[in-house]
Amino acid sequence: MAPRLIYYSDIENAYDYPDRIGRLAGTIGSLRGEDEIVVGTGDNTAPGVLAEQYDGRQALDFFRAVEPAAETFGNHNFNFGLAATRELVADSPQPWICANVYDDDNRFAGVSPFAGDLCIASLDGGELYEMVDGVLSPIDATHDRIWRGQFSGMRVVYDPNRRQIQSVTVEGKTLDSNAEYTVATNRYVAVSGSDLTPITTDHISETWGVQYDAILEYARETPLDVSLDGLIESTTDD
């Protein structure tokens, strides 16, 4: 009989809910047999409350419980720095495999989610607003969690109580529903069919190769002036 692959991915903050992570470990155990291979496929240590407390090491108990044959890296596996990642890898019961991160000219691990191409998509203002609205919509009805997108060159003011966008500005100008905008994104966004975004392959006008390589090339050629605050502002009306 051919082996069957069982993989888990993007566990992230499931560790914050003991019943949830316990059910996952139990489900993997119930599916496992002589012909099954269990692997982890990235973002299985962070983010989350426990992850912040233990630098992702809360995942070690899970790894020991499910005994994966191998684990690979996602971008969140590097949330706490390279040193913390190295220590976690060394203490894990399973091997970690991947090869598209460089450390002193040596390949170390992977940080480009889905290894997708970096694409340029053309959207009108209405579609761009729809994308922002989708990103700020709750994705977990039980805990009312919101997945906040990563914006650059755009500022969003959002009222979490009313769940309403108050304003969207692009390069300091109010979003124009009739204007055309270009968005740099991972190709996965266009092909995933996610309800969070209106972007499809029809919107893609250019492709720049693997996201990691394109970003690295840009960083080498262009000085980076990174602003981490103020891109998404939470506000409430009295």
Structure description:
With 238 residues, the protein is α/β, with parallel strands linked by helices. It folds into 2 domains: 4-107, Purple Acid Phosphatase, chain A, domain 2 (4-Layer Sandwich), CATH 3.60.21; 116-234, 5'-Nucleotidase, C-terminal domain (5'-nucleotidase,  domain 2), CATH 3.90.780.10. It has helices at 18-31, 49-54, 59-66, 82-91, 125-135, 187-191, 211-221; strands at residues 4-8, 36-40, 70-71, 102-103, 106-107, 117-124, 138-140, 145-146, 154-159, 164-170, 173-174, 180-186, 204-210, 232-234. A 4-stranded mixed sheet has the order 11-10-9-14, with helices on one face. Strands 1-2-3 form a 3-stranded parallel sheet, with no helix packed on it. The longest helix is centred in the N-terminal third of the chain and has 14 residues, at 18-31. It is globular. The model is unreliable at 105-114 (pLDDT under 50).
What key attributes describe this structure?
three-stranded parallel sheet; single chain; alpha/beta; Purple Acid Phosphatase, chain A, domain 2; 238 residues; four-stranded mixed sheet; 5'-nucleotidase,  domain 2
Largest sheet: 4 strands, mixed
- Quickly give the CATH architecture of the largest domain: Alpha-Beta Complex
Element string (H = helix, E = strand): EHEHHEHEEEHEEEEEEHEHE
Quote the beta fraction: 25-35%
The termini sit apart by 65 Å
In short:
The protein has 238 residues and is an alpha/beta fold. It contains seven helices and 14 strands. The strands form five sheets. Strands 11-10-9-14 form a four-stranded mixed β-sheet, with helices on one face. Strands 1-2-3 form a three-stranded parallel β-sheet, with no helix packed on it. Strands 12-6-13 form a three-stranded antiparallel β-sheet.
